[in-house]
Amino acid sequence: MINRVTHQTVQRSTLANLQLNLDRMSGLQGSLSSGKLITKPSDDPSGTAKAMQFRAEQRAAEQAARNAADGSSWLTTADTALQTSLAGLRRARDLTVQGASTGVLNATAREALALEIEGLRDALLSQANTSYIGRSVFAGTSDADTAFTGPTGTPPYTWTGTAGATVERRLAPDTTVRVDVDGRAAFGEGDDSVFAVLDRIATDLRAGADVNPRLNEIDTRMTAMLGEIAGVGSRQNQVLSAQDRIEKTLVDLKGSIAAVEDIDLAATLVDLQAQEVSYQAALGAASRVLQPSLLDFLR
């Protein structure tokens, strides 16, 4: 049986194909203008799911990068304070060595040494109370204004931090790093603090006493401070390594997202040109199909 093909059937079929070509060309033009293969989930459900997963990982990596940057700033602040404190403590030791020469220095010279040592004590106390964005780097999670009370405190040179409560930053789902420093370990506390040691040296100098035994006390505090500096350096290296790793992860994720969502520019241009040729051919075919009028049928 032969199906009857009417002129109206041909018109409808031609117009449908013409619309299909136009829709394809419109889609290619949209992709070319946006630069994206996926503009809505229905464009590629599977690709959309992958892109969402990649973006979730990207957000996590970006947060880790912010954590690492903040942790690096904490550690840099603490390291600078410790290095400055160590330099001051070395100067105090040199002055103590000078003051041990009891047979050479008169009362005026010993008073001058005592005053300079007290100045170094105040400078060390200031470094011990260093803060970063309003948080003391030597007091853990404590919200106290300073990590150590001053010489007029009751008792003097008390550490105001919270024992065992450390400040940490997460660098990965299973990796955290401590970014603060235990002020008691670095500077001591109370009578065992470096500040109290310098007070005793200044008192002995004014009294004309032998300060040579105080050198061991300074050396003990210097050893403790060097240990904390080494710990800070180790953690800084950990943070720097994490930053490099996170940066590489972010680059890889951006590439993965682009592979799923972004168009191939050259291929899209070729497809668009081919579609334009197809559309023009469809227009030409339609013009011939739709050309007959009622008079053409009456001839």
How would you describe the overall organization of this protein?
This protein is mainly alpha-helical. It has two domains: 51-256, f41 fragment of flagellin, N-terminal domain (Up-down Bundle); 264-299. Helix content is 68%, strand content 4%. The strands form two sheets. The protein has a two-stranded antiparallel sheet with strand order 1-2. A two-stranded antiparallel ribbon has the order 3-4. The protein starts with 6 loop residues before the first helix and ends with a helix. The model has no long low-confidence stretch (mean pLDDT 85).
Task: Briefly say what this structure is.
The chain has 299 residues and is mainly alpha-helical. It is 68% helix and 4% strand. β1 (131-132) and β2 form a beta hairpin.
User: CATH H level of the largest domain: which superfamily?
Assistant: f41 fragment of flagellin, N-terminal domain
Overall geometric form: rod-shaped
Strand content: under 5%
Side by side, the strands of the main sheet go 1-2
**CA(first)-CA(last) distance:** 28 Å
Could you state the order of secondary-structure elements as H and E? Answer: HHHEEEEHHHHH
- How many separate domains? 2
Radius of gyration, CA atoms, in whole angstroms:
39 Å
- The CATH architecture of the largest domain would be Up-down Bundle
Helix content: 55-70%
Structural class: mainly alpha
Sheet of most strands: 2 strands, antiparallel
Number of strands: 4
Give the averaged pLDDT, no decimals. Answer: 85
Q: How many separate helices?
A: 8
> Class of the largest domain, according to the CATH hierarchy?
Mainly Alpha
